[in-house]
Structure formats: structure tokens, C-alpha cells
Amino acid sequence: MIDVRGLRRAYPGAAGRGPVQALAGLDLHVPEGSFTSVIGPSGCGKSTLLRAVAGLEDPDDGEVLVCGRPPGAAAADKEIGLVPQTPALLPWLTVRGNVELPARVNRAADRRRSRGGAAVQRGDAAEVLREVGLGQVLDRYPHELSGGMQQRVALARAVAMRPRVLLLDEPFSAVDEITREALRRQLLALWEHVRTTVLFVTHSVREAVVLSDTVVVMAGPPGRVVDVVDVGLPRPRAGADLGGPAMHAVEDRLRRELAAAWAAGTPDGAPAGFPETPAAPSAPEPPGGLR
Ligand SMILES: Nc1ncnc2c1ncn2[C@@H]1O[C@H](COP(=O)(O)OP(=O)(O)OP(=O)(O)O)[C@@H](O)[C@H]1O
């Protein structure tokens, strides 16, 4: 569903400095209907990768295909949904209005293209908002919502278009830990319902393991894939009592990989105090385990 081959992307450097090589010949394959997370140290190129898959960054070299087509073409047909780090809702539209907007814009574009032909039918905004627990606030405005609720609106807005590919860039990074856990649960339940192809950028090992089929570990800059880890936990996971030894083993492996990736991406290696030995095994999880 997503194929990235030899992707290179450099940004111009500040005055007197050379360009920043953000991605250095990166390869990635995301199968249809799978949930894939990308983790890696800050600055290793995760967002650049996501933007390239969304069609928002042109590769300097290499190829990106989404649904077998260049990302720009897939995005134009609304086959790609993007949930950014900050929800970017329109303040003059209600919750329902924000979620309906992409479908309205799309219908208008369809009508222009087909001179009044049938509009594309996508998911119902109110139904998707109910799925993310916002059925009671359809007529509220963004400033009346908490940060976590706004992020759920952004998620509902992307999912309502029923995209074949959903891209999420650290969507829960700006909310507190309790809200974050609730959002993870809702994303998991929603995804186990719609089963669209997901590429999810996160800094949280726990989040990556709980949500994903596969976790891609990146190092950099320059950004590259250093490991692809099969999570292998059974589904459905929404509402399941996770947190057993299998889950801790995957988490510990990823923490070791991240420590190595962090050191590899730092010009002088790890700073004093950075753990050189593998992280201690994870503490056992309380029942429910979605932390
Ligand atoms: N517009 C830009 N201009 C110059 N350099 C950039 C630009 N965007 C990103 N970079 C650089 O490219 C590299 C990769 O950035 P990117 O944002 O993709 O990393 P990231 O892994 O998503 O980071 P984080 O986890 O902190 O969000 C970094 O070194 C960053 O400084």
C-alpha cells in the first residue's frame, strides 16, 4: 500500500553550513490494512518521511508510491488522510463542520469535474465523531474543547473521508499522559473497526507496541531504517488485557534499538550518563495494560 524506495531528501543548511541530509536512501514497505509505527530519535527524519508519503515533500531521489501511485495523485483523490501534531481546526466551524469540510470540498471538486454528476459518498461525520466519543459536542466550536478533544476531532476529520492510507504524526504529543492513554484506546478501537492502512510516528515505545503490527526503527540524521520489528501480539487488542511477557520482550528490544539509534545519530556518540547497557526489563503492567 505504501512503497518507499531509496528516498533521499536534504534541506538547505543555515548560512555557512552545508545542507541537512534528512533522509538517506530510505526503503519502507507498508502492507495494505496494516498498522505500522515509526520510532526513532528526535531529528532522525520521521516527519520528513511522513510528509513525503503525504505528498508534501518532493524527494531529491528515490520513489514513493501510495496505492501504486505518486502521493500527489493519491492525495488529490482523498486516498490519504493526515493527522498532524497539532489539530489545526478552523475556529469558525463547529466540530461537525470541521469534520464535514473535506467531504464538502471534495464534493464541490467532483461536481466541477463531472459537471453536476454524483458526488463521492464518504463516512458520516456525526457517526465518526460518535466513534471517537464526541457525539455530545457536535455543535461546539474548537475553542470550547480541550486539547485532547480537538485532537480527536482532527482524527475524526481524517477518518471520515475513509482514506485508504492514514498518516499520523505524533498526534498525541501535546496532551497529558492520561488523555494520551484514552486517545490511544480510541484510536485502537477505531482502527480495529475500519482497518485502513496506518503509518504512525511516535516517540513512545509502549504506544508503538500496543497499536502496531510492525514497528520501524529509524536512526539519523541522515534518516535511515535500522530495524523492522514484528510485534506479533494477537488482535483485537482494544479492551484486551495486554502487558504480558511477550509485550515486554518487544518493548525491551525496541528500547535497546532506540538507545543504539540515538548514539549512532549523535556525532560524538552518547553523552555522559546515557545508558550504554540495555534498559532494565519493563515493569509488569496493571490489568488493562494500554499505557
Ligand atoms: N524545513 C527544514 N529546513 C531545514 N532543516 C529541516 C527542515 N525540516 C527538517 N529539517 C531537519 O531535517 C532533519 C529531520 O527532521 P524531521 O523533522 O523529519 O525529524 P523527526 O525525526 O521528525 O524529529 P522530531 O522527532 O523531533 O519531530 C532534522 O535534522 C531537522 O533539523
UniProtKB/TrEMBL annotation:
Assigned keywords, A-Z: ATP-binding, Nucleotide-binding, Transport
Domain ABC transporter: 2-245
SUPFAM superfamilies referenced in this protein's UniProt entry, alphabetically: P-loop containing nucleoside triphosphate hydrolases
Keyword Lyase (UniProt): no
Biased composition (Low complexity): 265-280
Transmembrane segments: none
Composition skew (Pro residues), residue ranges: 281-291
A Pfam family it matches: ABC_tran
Signal peptide residue numbers: none
Chain intervals for the UniProt region annotation (Disordered): 265-291
Organism domain of life: Bacteria
GO MF annotation list: ATP binding; ATP hydrolysis activity
Gene3D superfamilies tied to this protein: P-loop containing nucleotide triphosphate hydrolases (3.40.50.300)
InterPro entries, alphabetized: AAA+_ATPase, ABC_transporter-like_ATP-bd, ABC_transporter-like_CS, ABC_transporter_ATP-bind, P-loop_NTPase
Protein name: ABC transporter ATP-binding protein
